[in-house]
Design a protein that fits this description.
The structure is a homodimer. Chain A is α/β, with parallel strands linked by helices. Chain A has 3 domains: about 10-85, Winged helix-like DNA-binding domain superfamily/Winged helix DNA-binding domain (Arc Repressor Mutant, subunit A, Orthogonal Bundle); about 90-185 and about 375-390, ATPase, nucleotide binding domain (Nucleotidyltransferase, domain 5, 2-Layer Sandwich), CATH 3.30.420.40; about 210-370, Nucleotidyltransferase, domain 5 (2-Layer Sandwich), CATH 3.30.420.40. The first copy, chain A, is built from 14 helices and 13 strands. In chain A, strands 6-5-4-7-8 form a 5-stranded mixed sheet, with helices on both faces. In chain A, strands 11-10-9-12-13 form a 5-stranded mixed sheet, with helices on both faces. In chain A, strands 1-3-2 form a 3-stranded antiparallel sheet. The two termini of chain A are about 20 Å apart. Chain A binds a DNA duplex through helix 1 and helix 3.
DNA sequence: CTTATTAAATATAGGTTCTAGATTTAGTTA
DNA sequence: TAACTAAATCTAGAACCTATATTTAATAAG
C-alpha cells in the first residue's frame, strides 16, 4: 500500500479516478457518463473507460433503460450504469447491555433484514454467542452468506479506542466488548465502537450541515457521542463523552440517566408517601412506575409527575450546558429509547437553556431515531468507511473467485 | 482549483509529486535524491526531474558539498539539495490583552527576530496599530520586506471560528480581534486564531506522539486549547475550550485563573489581617502581592502562602478533572507566563488527581515554553499550513517577478 | 419512408508522466 | 594509471488523460 505522504505513479492515478467514479456511483446508484463528467471534469473517453473497469470488477452494471427512465431526450441514447448494490453487504450490530439488535444492509444502505433479541447474561461469551446468533439470523433472512459481507460494525456500551479495544482494568467493559472480531472472522472486516459514538454518527448523517453537536444517550446512564468540527471525538482510550464528570457539576449530581432517575424518584415518592392521593402515579403499583409512566402522567397534567419532570429538565439543562460551553456544539440531541417520551423534560430543559445562554441559544431536541439510533449509526459508520475507501473492498459475485 | 472528490489528470499527478518532494525538503532542509527515492518510492530520474522543477521555482538550491558534509562514500558523488529557507517568511504575532509580541521566522521555523511591546489601551484601532508596529519592527530587524512574507498568524484572547472571526455580540471580543487581515494586506495571507489554541499547537509540535491533551492558559482567566485525536477543536463559533462552565463545577467556582486568584487571595488575607505576623506575605506591600510572590513564599515554606497554593491546587485539579473525564485527554499542560512559577500548585493538583483517577492517571505538567507559547504556536500554525499546502505559496526571489 | 438533427459512443493522434534498463560520469582506492 | 563504485544521464516504453474527428442510434420533420 501507500507510504504516507507519498508520491504516485500513473497507475495510482488511475486508481484514484476509479475510486472517484465509484464514490459517485455509491451516492447516485444509477447514473450517466455525462453526470460523472460534470462532477469530475474528466473526458467522456476516460469516464467510459473507468466505468468499464468498474463493470469488470463487479461494482456496477450497465442497464438498458437510458431513455425510458429519463425524460425525453434527443440524440443517441446514453448508456446508463447502476451500482450493483448487492456486490457486498454491511452488517450493523447494537450489542447493548440487555439486548442485541442486528441489521444487514446493501451498499446503498437499504436495510434488508433486522432482528432483536434479549441477552441472558452479561458475560462476554454469552454476548458473543448472542451477537453471532442475531447476525446469522439477519443474514439468513436476507439470503446473504457471510463471505458476501464487507464489514461488520458493532456498537457496545463501553469506551472503545481507535483500535476497537476497551480500556483494561474494568471487567464490565471487557464483558461488554469481548472481542467481537474473532466472532465474525468469516464476515469481512469487523469494527467495534462505542454505542453513543455510533448514535452520533447516525445523527450526523441525518442532519446535513450540523457539524458540531453532542448525542446524549440518556436512559439508564448518560453517555455522549461528541462530534466537533465534523469529527467524532475518541480520546486517548476512547473515553471521550463519558459523563462521570457530572459527579462534580452543580445541579447535575451524577451520571444517572433520565430513565433511571424518573423511575427512582417516582418510586421514592411513592415509598415516602408524598404523592398526593389524586396523583396518577399513586394509582400505579410500584413495579409499573416506569419513566414512560411518569412522563405520560406529567403530560396529562399530574402535578407530582410534573415536579419530577421539572427536576429532570433542570438536570438535563446542566448536562447540555456543560457540553455546549466547553465544546461550543450547536445542538444537543437526546437519544436512546426514552428520548421521544422525554419530550416534556426536553422542553423544560430548553427553557432553562434559554435563560443560561445569550443568543444564539444552543438547540436541544429529541432524536427521531428512537431505539434504533445505535444500529443505524453502526450502518452509517460502515457506509462511510465504504465511501472513504471503496476500493479496499472486493465485490462478491457468484462464480467469480475473489 | 479542484472540485471536491475529483478525479485527476497527469499534470495534477506531477503537482502532487512536486508537493511531496517539497514537503521532504521542508522537513530535511538538505537532502539527496536517494533519500527522496527511499521516502517516496519514485525513480531517480523522476526525483531529479522534480528537484529541477523545485530549483526553477526557487524552493531549493543545488549545493556542492555532497562529499564534504557526508561521511565517506564511494562512487560518483551525489548532488545535494538544500531548502532555500529564505524563499519566504512566516510572521507570528501574539496580540494579547496588554502586550503584543511578534516574531519572524524562515521556512525552517528558525526565528530571525522577535519583539514585544505593551499596548496602551484595549480598543481595536490601538491594537491594530500596535500589532503592525511590532511586525514592522521585527521585519526591519530581520531585513525582510512585507512582500516576502508568506503568512501572518495572529493569536488573540477571544474565541475565533474557522474563518478567523470572533462571535458578534461581545464588544470585548471584537476589540481583541479587530480585523487583523486588513492590517497585514501586504504580507501574504493572514490567519487569526485563539491564543490558547495556538499555545496548544506549540505543545503539539513539541510533544510528538501526544495526540490528546489540553493546554490550559491559566494566568488571569482559564482558557483551554483542546487537541483530541490529533486535531484542534474549534466548535461552531470557535468557543471550544472556553471555561465558563467552571461556574457550575463544584470546587472550581469560576473561570478566574491561577495568577488572578493567587493575587486576590493574598490581598484579601492581607486586608483581613489573617496573615500570621511571621509570614513572608505580611512583609510585602499589597501592591507587590503578585502571584509569583505567593508561589515563591510557598516554596520557601511560608504556611499562609502554602494554604493559598493548596486551595489553588485543588481548584486546578478540578479543572483538569473536567477536561480529562469528558475528553479523555492524556495530559493537561498548564501554560502561560506564570506556568513555571506555579509548579507548587501543579504538584498539589497532581496529587489530587492521583486520588481521583484510577491508573492510568492523566499527566499534569507546566509548559516549558513560558510566556512564548502563543507566539511559538502561531509560528507552528504557519509552518503546518506551509507543510500541508506548500505549493499554494510562491517563493520570493529578488529580481524575479512572482 | 426518407432525411435532418442531435447527442452519445468510438476511434485516432498526441502530450505528460512515470518506469526500466543500459550507458556514461565523477569521484575514490589500489 | 587502472579498477571500482554509485550517481547521473540517456533511451525506450507503457499507462494515462485529452482533444478532435468520425460513427452510431435514436427522434423529429418533411
Amino acid at each position: 500500500m501507500l507510504r504516507e505522504d507519498v508520491a504516485t505513479s500513473p497507475q495510482l492515478l488511475r486508481r484514484m479516478n476509479v475510486g472517484a467514479v465509484l464514490r459517485y456511483a455509491l451516492a447516485a446508484q444509477t447514473f450517466l457518463a455525462s453526470e460523472v463528467m460534470a462532477a469530475t471534469g474528466l473526458t467522456r473517453s476516460t469516464v467510459l473507460g473507468l466505468c468499464d473497469t468498474l463493470v469488470a470488477q463487479g461494482w456496477i452494471d450497465e442497464v438498458a433503460d437510458s431513455r425510458e427512465a429519463g425524460q425525453y431526450s434527443k440524440g443517441r441514447p446514453a448508456r446508463r450504469y447502476r451500482l450493483r448494490d448487492r456486490a457486498g453487504y454491511i452488517v450493523a450490530v447494537d450489542a447493548g447491555q440487555h439486548t442485541v439488535t442486528a441489521a444487514v444492509a446493501d451498499l446503498r444502505g437499504t436495510i434488508l433484514a433486522r432482528t432483536g433479541h434479549t441477552i441472558d447474561g452479561v458475560q462476554g461469551p454469552v454476548r458473543r454467542t448472542a451477537a453471532r446468533g442475531a447476525v446469522d439470523s439477519v443474514l439468513a433472512h436476507a439470503d446473504v452468506r457471510p463471505e458476501e459481507v464487507f464489514l461488520v460494525v458493532v456498537g457496545v456500551p463501553a469506551p472503545v479506542d481507535g483500535q476497537g479495544h476497551s480500556p483494561a482494568g474494568h471487567d464490565y467493559w471487557q464483558h461488554m466488548n469481548p472481542g467481537f472480531p474473532a466472532v465474525f472472522d468469516d464476515c469481512g472486516r469487523t469494527m467495534v465502537d462505542n454505542d453513543a459514538n455510533l448514535a452520533a454518527l447516525a445523527e450526523h448523517a441525518r442532519n446535513p450541515g450540523l457539524d458540531s453537536f453532542a448525542t446524549l444517550l440518556s436512559g439508564e446512564r448518560f453517555g455522549a457521542g461528541l462530534v466537533v468540527d465534523g469529527r467524532l471525538l475518541r480520546g486517548r482510550h476512547g473515553g471521550a463523552g463519558e459523563m462521570r464528570l457530572l459527579d462534580i457539576v452543580q445541579g447535575a449530581g451524577s451520571s444517572e440517566g433520565l430513565g433511571f432517575l424518573a423511575r427512582e424518584w417516582a418510586v421514592a415518592a411513592s415509598k415516602a408517601r408524598t404523592l398526593p392521593p389524586g396523583s396518577a402515579l399513586a394509582q400505579l403499583p410500584r413495579a409499573q412506575l416506569s419513566a414512560e409512566a411518569v412522563f405520560a402522567a406529567a403530560a396529562g397534567g399530574d402535578a407530582a409527575a410534573q415536579g419530577i419532570v421539572d427536576r429532570l429538565g433542570e438536570r438535563l439543562a446542566r448536562v447540555a450546558q456543560i457540553l455546549v460551553s466547553l465544546l461550543d456544539v450547536e445542538k444537543v440531541i437526546v437519544a436512546g429509547a426514552i428520548a421521544q417520551a422525554a419530550q416534556p423534560v426536553i422542553d423544560k430543559a430548553a427553557a432553562v437553556l434559554d435563560d443560561v445562554f445569550q443568543p444564539p441559544v444552543p438547540e436541544l431536541a429529541a432524536s427521531t431515531l428512537g431505539a434504533d439510533g445505535v444500529v443505524l449509526g453502526a450502518l452509517e459508520c460502515g457506509l462511510s468507511m465504504l465511501r472513504d475507501e471503496p476500493l479496499s473492498f472486493a465485490p462478491f459475485r457468484p462464480g467469480v473467485a475473489r
